[in-house]
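= Protein in question =
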Amino acid sequence: MRLRGKKIAFLIDEGFEDLEFWVTVMRLREEGAQVTIVDPGGKKNYRGKNGLAASADVGIERVGPGEFDAVVIPGGWAPDKMRRSGAVKRFVGDMHLAGKIVGMICHAGLVGISAGIVQGRRATGSLGIMDDLVNAGATWVDEPAFRDGNLVWGRVVADIPDFCRELVTAIESQQG
């Protein structure tokens, strides 16, 4: 139970990548983390791009970065929707500025780009967002998963085990 007492915000929106969401949520809970599913869309119940359902615990307007040790963003089609939300961009940006862990896998880097937190950082994700990350000032790295400061990156679904290992180690090592 390496993450006992840690509080993790997990963002969700329609079209999330089912495995990147559920496997990571379960892995964090397995380590004792309190995972709160945060809803930027006000809908409450969502479907993943492959059909799995998930429900939010709370709307993003009701949470603040001071309540959490980390935020995780799954890929899929959801990041392209989430990045349009001012509340999401503020929340992710504020978490980053506070030095808290921001985990992004696959297309989640789109949220990091819109939150303005990727410039000058190493980044990975789906090849579909490589140009977006580079154009936002990140250095593209084709690796399954890694940590760059307080940012934890995962490439694609096949790399979920590596992403989860990096994420758990990063959250565990955070002070406070």
Observations:
- The chain has six helices and eleven strands.
- The mean pLDDT is 97.
- The helical segments are 18-30, 78-82, 86-97, 109-114, 130-135, 160-173.
- The radius of gyration is 14 Å.
